[in-house]
Amino acid sequence: MPSPAASPDSLPSAGTLAARYRAVRQRSLALAAPLSAEDAMLQSMDDASPAKWHLAHTTWFFERFVLGAQAAYRPVNEAWDYLFNSYYQSVGPMHARSRRGLLSQPGLAQVIDYRAQVDARMQRGFEHGGFDADPALKPRIELGLHHEQQHQELLLTDIKHAFWCNPLKPAYRDDLRPSPGQATALEWIGCDEAIVEIGAPAWPGAGDAFAFDNESPRHRVLLPAHALASRPVSNAEYRAFIDDGGYRAPGLWLSDGWARIQQDGWTRPMYWDDDLTREFTLGGMRAIDPQAPVCHLSYFEAEAFARWAGARLPTEAEWEHAAAQVPVTGNFVEDDMLHPTSPCTTAPCRSDVAQGDFCGGASRDRTTESDIGEPATHVAPTPEPAATPPAHPHQMFGDVWEWTSSAYSAYPGFREMPGALGEYNGKFMCGQQVLRGGSCVSPRDHLRASYRNFFHAPDCWQFTGLRLARDA
Amino acid sequence: MPSPAASPDSLPSAGTLAARYRAVRQRSLALAAPLSAEDAMLQSMDDASPAKWHLAHTTWFFERFVLGAQAAYRPVNEAWDYLFNSYYQSVGPMHARSRRGLLSQPGLAQVIDYRAQVDARMQRGFEHGGFDADPALKPRIELGLHHEQQHQELLLTDIKHAFWCNPLKPAYRDDLRPSPGQATALEWIGCDEAIVEIGAPAWPGAGDAFAFDNESPRHRVLLPAHALASRPVSNAEYRAFIDDGGYRAPGLWLSDGWARIQQDGWTRPMYWDDDLTREFTLGGMRAIDPQAPVCHLSYFEAEAFARWAGARLPTEAEWEHAAAQVPVTGNFVEDDMLHPTSPCTTAPCRSDVAQGDFCGGASRDRTTESDIGEPATHVAPTPEPAATPPAHPHQMFGDVWEWTSSAYSAYPGFREMPGALGEYNGKFMCGQQVLRGGSCVSPRDHLRASYRNFFHAPDCWQFTGLRLARDA
Amino acid sequence: MPSPAASPDSLPSAGTLAARYRAVRQRSLALAAPLSAEDAMLQSMDDASPAKWHLAHTTWFFERFVLGAQAAYRPVNEAWDYLFNSYYQSVGPMHARSRRGLLSQPGLAQVIDYRAQVDARMQRGFEHGGFDADPALKPRIELGLHHEQQHQELLLTDIKHAFWCNPLKPAYRDDLRPSPGQATALEWIGCDEAIVEIGAPAWPGAGDAFAFDNESPRHRVLLPAHALASRPVSNAEYRAFIDDGGYRAPGLWLSDGWARIQQDGWTRPMYWDDDLTREFTLGGMRAIDPQAPVCHLSYFEAEAFARWAGARLPTEAEWEHAAAQVPVTGNFVEDDMLHPTSPCTTAPCRSDVAQGDFCGGASRDRTTESDIGEPATHVAPTPEPAATPPAHPHQMFGDVWEWTSSAYSAYPGFREMPGALGEYNGKFMCGQQVLRGGSCVSPRDHLRASYRNFFHAPDCWQFTGLRLARDA
Amino acid sequence: MPSPAASPDSLPSAGTLAARYRAVRQRSLALAAPLSAEDAMLQSMDDASPAKWHLAHTTWFFERFVLGAQAAYRPVNEAWDYLFNSYYQSVGPMHARSRRGLLSQPGLAQVIDYRAQVDARMQRGFEHGGFDADPALKPRIELGLHHEQQHQELLLTDIKHAFWCNPLKPAYRDDLRPSPGQATALEWIGCDEAIVEIGAPAWPGAGDAFAFDNESPRHRVLLPAHALASRPVSNAEYRAFIDDGGYRAPGLWLSDGWARIQQDGWTRPMYWDDDLTREFTLGGMRAIDPQAPVCHLSYFEAEAFARWAGARLPTEAEWEHAAAQVPVTGNFVEDDMLHPTSPCTTAPCRSDVAQGDFCGGASRDRTTESDIGEPATHVAPTPEPAATPPAHPHQMFGDVWEWTSSAYSAYPGFREMPGALGEYNGKFMCGQQVLRGGSCVSPRDHLRASYRNFFHAPDCWQFTGLRLARDA
């Protein structure tokens, strides 16, 4: 099993860190480049933020927690501390989240200038050893970069939702093109009961790679015998669920899920057109690719689909254990598709899977989907069952975040980071579900097997899909 | 009594109309000029609209109801019909009012270009007699210009609210300067019971000046004997109400008003700072001028103040009858103050009042405020009572819209305009109160004595104040 | 014109007052008698109150404002002051209106005992001259009796709504029987422009009959020329409105009304079954009598119907002037139908109308409905037009409260009653519409031509209907 | 380790079952006996139900799922199927939960008669072998009895909340008396890492004791090394949290918890008086016993307290493993206190703990609370530390339900019961937290170590407290 400590993400030297700083910061600007100042101000719901705010808040993070750690530091603009704090109660009050879209001023140009000023100050710090005296600073810079990468993804998901709210259905970019792939059989990859390790060592620590505090400590868990699907659920399979009356059958839904779809009249994934053949993407309205992973599902929808399919969602431990066996490859933001794709589109089929041992022993249950047990066997037959079932699952990383059945909570021995940054993750450990694997709008070097994302059960504006699991 | 038919507002010739069209349309652009594209997109509450939307909707009005009257007309952009319709159900469905702020596209530049294209088409119509064949068209153009003037005022009140929601409290314009005036005694101008005429002849009609349908027909009403205050209530007087515990005394308030101030924690006018010495204006935060009319009051606050002062609000008939005796002079948008001012600031004191008969007979009750009867006499004494009480009230027009005690409803014999434009006014005749006189952000030539504005009792983002009245 | 001062309702002597006290108090108990203790606790919406609460609050009114006026008075239970105060802020805080249904204790039996104790104390006062010393007390008793009569009506309307909320649709009484009548032509009764007097002299005053403060002062108004329908709109006529698509035509509705019926899915009067043939009554589900006045309409529905019919609602002055010409006869709570009935059911046809002069002059416009002017003439033809149009309208009192186009506001010269009882009416003068005439659940001796009832535009759980009017 | 299969709760014979049926059914009536018909109708919030409804719904459960399994069955009243179904979508539509308080009819007497009729029919079934043919029936009866026991507890918690909403703060029973005990030191009982079994075998099955489906299957979990507090947190300790500013320190709270206490103004447990010395109980207002377990905490409050105390909540597996070592003794509904009590009140101190091995090995961490680690050590010192730390925790059962850090979700291998009863538990597995151990209003024979209760994080109307845990 690969050691997490061997990851290239280990705490970098200042030189490396400076280079990474520039690269990450530059990408945020690049992602915002297709947006007008007006586009960058859109806030379409309380949960989403304007692109401009993402640009400013990520900058504030460095200014407040890195530059501001020096007592003599004078902020670029003191009044902005209130505007661009997100939820750090311990550093002071903040502008209401739901009203971020009301900040026409400072304008986008001012925010970009703010970024430049902070970047220049950071650059001086890198060049003159300004971050050497306090050992807390470099880890905070590293954290700030991962923080900014999270907001890069949010910038894209938030603007997608905002554009979808415009009756003109404008595209974020006109040059994006779909890359339809081919169907792949859904297969089951078994795993015997085993004690495995998941999670990451607490960071920062000697020699350890970056991980958020919520991923630590690395710890032992007992996995039950189970099987995991070889790939995410596809649009075609989800369409079969709809066609079979899935949205009209209360018995398939969690109680809260049924209440929600009744109340809000859900009959399909949020971005699907009502003819079920087209969907809204960052490239505008587009035909739905039947083979691509279904996307923008709420937990309620993912859970109902799994029940309909006679299966269940994986736990996060089951997911992580499988993911730790495969390299972090897939369809990421760098691939510039900005939409989930069929398997085999971005890489030679199966080449992303290191051959060999899975699950610490012989997979005892390599079967095609036609084996899905009674009572419900709904996943549509695939054209040509693979002759040789895969040893490892595909598309674990990228494409779509995969809902797990695990509620977001603390690992045994979890400790929040000290100080204000302890508010980063821990205080959200209630009422949310864990998602794993990253999406087509996640930066590749931001992800890892132990990464825990979390959203509320009704949320569907992230690139969220599912992979089936079942008891062995 | 001056005949309304003699007004210079009579239906103009095409030449005049074209000139007026250009002037009104140009002013909208001038009012939006201080705004960035981001500012122009702000929608701070459901009741308010983005400046950009005002610019677009007023243009759509001409395109839809004037240019579009020709069967062969091809719109500048068909998709915008849905976006820029406000509430005309009979011409089709529309974008939800509360979501106008989510339209980053079309951008401000596109909207300005849309204006230019429609203006050019209108210009061709003026030049080539395109509006001569259908007798309905010129009246619709005239209506469209008054419609646009209404939106000019809304553009200013809406952006004021939006900027106030920004913790930075940005100014709409940095070059606005207060013009403090001097105190003027509040005096009472009496009026005996009389049958008077109010309202305006139905327009369009032979020789008649423009008026909205809700001002017609001109009709007889019986005024009871009463007295009207010589000027609006001042900031100093309203401050005395606050200092006397006005916001804590349930007995002063309408039941709905008390519920509202309890629920939302109102303790002062919306734009006042909590130290009661500064207020938010279109020029930013500024010291409150004690002598200027108090502004941005809800009906609830105006009504409570009047009760505290031992007085009442005037009815709209009382107000109109008095206003018809004085010229339409005052502090308007053209004065470029964009804030209410003390009396005597914009014009030689009293010179705005034609000397002579008021109310069709001798004013029997010319008294200074110190005569305000029992039980409550709260309006603060003024420095030097005027030696000669005025025959006519001051500041009837401009400065602040004055809440009346009259609910907005149909005059006897009222007929809505035919067709879609019948939705302009009539369908709002429920649950709102009439305001009279215009404000410091109203265009001068948009106002007249018979003009009826209307808002809901809790509304306070318009420039709204009050003038006291009392039973004789 | 009959003088209001001649009314039999003049301030009674203590003997008369004591008798009236016993009668009114007894009727409240009789109205509650069909209810179980559980029924009497129902509160089906914030606007409605439990029957038990009505019984207790009306008792509290006498205890607080009459018995409690003596300094030495010891209440039956001090803790109940908080529970049974409705909205009198000046006598102290109160239990939240929306939570009256949560008071299982004191139980119904305790409340009935409370009534008995207060009645006994009142009786001693009547017998021993206890109300003679303070001249304010007898008027307060008189007011308290009218107050209790208002709550008698509310008790019935509130329990009707509560039972309707029970899927079993229980009847308040099983012994109620419909009394179908016969069709009567709708005719128009004209009235020339005239100055008339409406309202009632301020009460209490020398020799004056009881009236609420909101009915005073009696004052002069200028009525425009107009015509009033001879009877309320019938169920058959309202059914024609529904069948003609009335609920689907936005052009017929006030803006707020259209929003409301869209939001809540209204397609018919609240208590009508969806097959449009049966309705819920205090006697349970029952076939709709086509000839009976339509009932339980909101103002929105009444106003939309009038527009559809090419007519309008009357103003309250128009209504009152006509009503003052006819005796207070009709279908009241004493008739024990508890539902509106066809004309001619309870009294010999037309006998309720004094022959002679209407409107202070010759009625210039006595026409049958077939004269209803353009553009819309929707009121269904009646079987046999009356040979001689009536001089006075029918069914002005009883059956259904008639919505007027008048917003509820102060008459010129209005003064609230002094002290806490000033909160009775005046503080509600905003955002409501006036209704006139009483209903089939109003006590007969509680009504008069000047009586002003008021509810919000969406309210429809009272027995509310309409009578058409039109400009002459 | 005791085998769950040895429990006396194993599937009973018909004779035993009939006796148990009578006993359980009788207790429901006994619990409702102190209530008037009005009390029994109270519904103080959407989450709570009227006592009458509990009595009816539990009866409906037997009628629908046991008696109704016979095709020829004729219900006592067909219309009640709609009224008394709770949430079983698969058997048909149901009355809205939030409107159960509007059912004055059928009245309490009718519901009690309904119970008698169903009981008589059940009795005939027991006597005549009516439940022998279908093997599903006896398990359903057994389930129905446990279902009814759940509603017995809800009946008490719901009526407590309802009475608390009455400003008179009536007692459910006047004869309840507090039994103050003495302080007990909080000690820590350690447990090494171990693989343990939790859960219960799927029921019904050969020889197995009753358990709900959500407790199964019995399965292996890996417990991390940890320590569990010897007793629940006391009122005195919680008071120290309040006095230390716990409700004003955002850093102690989950994000949703902080938002909630800000929004609703929470400053203390729901039933505590604002002087922090008295609390509302089923016996009315009463002095708070400092040594008794703190009660009626939301998950938010429990979690914040634990953080303040430098500890955490236990997982449900940690809790269950410890609980499985001790007998099901404690303060239950049969003890007739109906309120949590100090330790040592109901039983000889420590006698409830079987001496011997805990946690499958030597407890390595038997310490008193003074050992609570850095950084926060807030649990107040106790008068006299125990000389010998306990081998097992006290008060695991009864007194208060103990919040765990575990979100309510499916065990590995979970299968819902087939048919409509599959809706019993599984569809609520989202967004709730697990509680363990039962309370002072739980029936003793309804509880077991594997029992999983679940509520939402803000809920505090159940008898909910907490026990601290910490990482070893």
From TrEMBL, chains A, B, C, D:
Q: Which GO terms describe its biological process?
A: ergothioneine biosynthetic process
Q: What InterPro entries does the record point to?
A: CTDL_fold (IPR016187), DinB-like (IPR024775), DinB/YfiT-like (IPR034660), EgtB (IPR017806), Sulfatase_Mod_Factor_Kinase (IPR051043), SUMF_dom (IPR005532), SUMF_sf (IPR042095)
Start and end of every Sulfatase-modifying factor enzyme-like domain?
Answer: 205-470
Q: Which residues form a coiled coil?
A: none
Question: What ranges does the record give for the region Disordered, renumbered to this chain?
Answer: 360-389
UniProt keyword annotations, A-Z: Iron, Oxidoreductase
Q: Which domain of life is it from?
A: Bacteria
Q: Does the keyword Oxidoreductase apply?
A: yes
The record's annotation in Gene3D superfamilies points to: paralog of FGE (formylglycine-generating enzyme)
Pathway recorded for this protein: Amino-acid biosynthesis; ergothioneine biosynthesis
DinB-like domain location: 21-153
Return the PANTHER family for the record.
Answer: HERCYNINE OXYGENASE (PTHR23150:SF36), SULFATASE MODIFYING FACTOR 1, 2 (PTHR23150)
Listed name of the protein = Ergothioneine biosynthesis protein EgtB
Q: Which species does this protein come from?
A: Lysobacter concretionis Ko07 = DSM 16239
